[in-house]
Design brief:
The protein has twelve helices and 15 strands. Among the domains are: 70 residues, Nucleic acid-binding proteins (OB fold (Dihydrolipoamide Acetyltransferase, E2P), Beta Barrel); 165 residues, Rossmann fold (3-Layer(aba) Sandwich). The protein has 344 residues and is of the alpha/beta class. The strands form four sheets. Strands 10-9-8-11-15-14 form a six-stranded mixed β-sheet, sandwiched between helices. Strands 3-2-1-4-5 form a five-stranded antiparallel β-sheet, with no helix packed on it. Strands 6-7 form a two-stranded antiparallel sheet. The site of zinc ion has 7 residues, from helix 10.
Length: 344
């Protein structure tokens, strides 16, 4: 009992092209929830709980899978992939959501507004392969909302920025262009900026669609999230708990896009590992002297590059760093003992 078409769900040529001979009889379905041993997926014939064919971590909300009605037989390559560095010391990537068209960074026109943080989000969005949108909420509380909007749009030619009052349904409705039929939008941003308010305005949101308490196999209550939510405009909003703690990792490409003016200049430094400090032939310092680079923007770029390098450290690099640290600690203890017991 559904009148949802595959196109409404976001099915498009890049997915259709992935079908191989023999797969035409399978049903494409879009993953709405990822559970430990089941996937809830939406298709032209309605919802279904599917048995995954890969481990749960291989799937993300928004993925397309091919199903025979019972199982997810194959997962299709996503058009965009939002991931984050997994917790702990590994550099394994944790998938957060897939096939998002537009990611809206929600920030308010006051204390939360921070150009460096916006740039970090823009780099992350570019690395995920999504289109960025900046939504400045609480426009009703400030006199100069349009100034904030202009500052945000100056960050990158890819950016569209909107200033609005999230509590006003009509104003929030300006986002429907990004979440109509076949389109998927996601909202990210700090706590308290108005993401829930926007979600309420854009979807038939109720407490029941936010978290569903379920009993797991051991009889414990677990809260699962309905993460792919239909918008009033006929499209989709992806809202997963993982989006709240996004970090910048492996965003090199994204940083390059957001700071293309600076990376172009840096490419002209004499040394390709130039730290832009005292090296001869440094194009960055020359550009700074000529006032072609904004020093604040340069500092933000350097900070992002450092953070990205740290986050992208490979597993073996992490291990050898930890090992070297362990040796140093042990070595220190051994020497200490030696000193304290000189007679032995
Ligand atoms: N005046 C005004 N208040 C707003 C606007 N957007 C959000 N608020 C208020 O700001 C508070 C926080 O909004 P939420 O939507 O809960 O923020 P959130 O981003 O979902 O926060 P978390 O759930 O903590 O991640 C609420 O009291 C909202 O009513 C706005 O555009 N104008
Ligand atoms: Zn340099």
């Amino acid at each position: 009992m559904t009148d949802t078409t595959l196109a409404d769900l976001g099915w498009s040529a890049p997915f259709a092209r992935q079908l191989t001979a023999g797969e035409e009889t399978l049903h494409p379905m879009r993953v709405a929830e990822v559970h430990r041993d089941r996937l809830r997926a939406l298709g032209a014939a309605g919802d279904a709980m599917l048995i995954p064919s890969e481990r749960a971590g291989a799937y993300a909300v928004g993925d397309w899978v091919l199903s025979d009605g019972t199982s997810a037989l194959r997962r299709l390559e996503p058009q965009s992939d939002l991931t984050r560095k997994a917790a702990g010391h590994t550099v394994e990537r944790q998938r957060i959501a897939a096939n998002i068209d537009t990611i809206a960074v929600v920030t308010s026109c006051n204390a939360d507004f921070n150009l460096a943080r916006l740039e970090r989000y823009l780099a992350l969005i570019a690395s995920a392969g999504c289109l960025p949108l900046i939504v400045l909420t609480k426009a009703d509380l400030v006199a100069d909302a349009d100034d904030y909007r202009r500052q945000a749009e100056k960050l990158s030619p890819l950016v569209t920025a909107l200033a609005l009052n999230a509590k006003d349904m009509e104003d929030a409705g300006r986002l429907t262009a990004w979440c109509g039929p076949g389109r998927t939008l996601a909202l990210i941003g700090s706590s308290g900026v108005g993401k829930t308010t926007l979600r309420n305005a854009l979807t038939e949101f109720t407490a029941a669609t936010a978290g569903i308490r379920e009993d797991d196999a051991k009889g414990r209550h677990t809260t699962t999230f309905r993460s792919l939510v239909r918008t009033r405009a006929g499209g989709w909003l992806i809202d997963t708990p993982g989006m709240r703690e996004l970090q910048l990792a492996d965003a090199q490409e994204g940083i390059g896009e957001v700071f293309d003016d600076i990376t172009e200049i840096a490419a002209q430094c004499r040394f390709n590992d130039c730290a832009h400090e005292t090296e001869p032939g440094c194009a960055i310092r020359a550009a700074l002297d000529q006032g072609r680079i904004d020093p604040d923007r340069l500092r933000r770029w350097q900070k992002l590059m450092l953070e990205d390098r740290y986050n992208s450290e490979t597993l073996s690099q992490t291990r050898s760093r930890q090992k070297a640290f362990g040796k140093m600690v042990k070595g220190g203890q051994a020497r200490g003992r030696h000193k304290r017991n000189p007679g032995r």
